[in-house]
Amino acid sequence: MTDLVLADGRTLDLRTWGAPGAPALVYLHGTPGSALVPPATLAAAADRGLRVVSWSRPGYGTSTRLPHRTVADVAGDAREVLDSLGIATAVALGYSGGGPHALACAALLPDRVSAVASLAGVAPRVESDGSLDWFAGQGEDNVVEHGAAIEGEAALRARLDPVLPEYRDITAEQIVPVMDSLLPDVDRHYLGGGLGGWLATSFREATSHGNDGWVDDDLAFVRPWGFDLASISVPVSVWQGSADLMVPFAHGQWLAGAVPGARPHLLDGEGHLSVVVGRVGPLLDDLTSLGRR
């Protein structure tokens, strides 16, 4: 774990796994989340000789907040991270709320990111208006949360502040009752293993200094993202499960049609969490092959 000081004086909680000089995989975490990478992803990356690079987005954990950030702002941080580690190019995997940020890297850093995978990634609300029912299929908690984000920061904080203590101290055993409306049976099954422990630890790290990162992520998702998906020229794959209640299947379908040349992997019966365990090996094989094109 390293506190990387950026050019503007902010710091990022930066972590790496694997050998320096190995092909690099940038992992962009979910919402709320931290630089902690799922064990299955780390294991699959190690099996393939990849170096994993991850950081907590601004406002999460010990990373300095960047107020009013857009999804596009991740590109500048990603460039500085890669520069600091001497990495010329990398492939990028964005999970859940990290999906939009991975797509931003594809659009804005084509010289540094050779391929991108969006795994259970959110579609844009503003840019999809009229072509996607953005709320359809979301669990009740997410409908309420994202509705508050559309109202603005004050309404969103009124929604998230009361649940902050739950997430700051959450245990693996508490994941299901806290997130009940967002968990299909397939995801509940996997929470009985190590995935539940990872998710709880990530939530605790993410909210250890407050919920600024969570607030700023949600606001960024429902506002203009700051880049044009149609401008993406690097290879992109879109992975999405039909049983997902956090990010609905239609989001993956929409992204697969909106990103030029995107390779769709639309998976019947998979949820939001099950894809992290069951699909990450094939995903990394596909991603690294796209990165060599």
| Number of β-strand runs | 8
Biggest sheet character: 8 strands, mixed
CATH architecture: 3-Layer(aba) Sandwich
Helical content, roughly? Answer: 40-55%
Order of strands across the main sheet: 1-2-4-3-5-6-7-8
Large-scale geometry: globular
> H/E order of the elements?
EEEHEHEHEHHHHHHHEHEHH
The number of helices is 13
CATH topology: Rossmann fold
Name of the CATH homologous superfamily = Alpha/Beta hydrolase fold, catalytic domain
Q: How many separate domains make up the residues?
A: 1
Mean pLDDT: 96
- Radius of gyration based on Cα positions: 17 Å
Strand content: 15-25%
The CATH class label is Alpha Beta
Return the structural class: alpha/beta
Low-confidence stretches: none
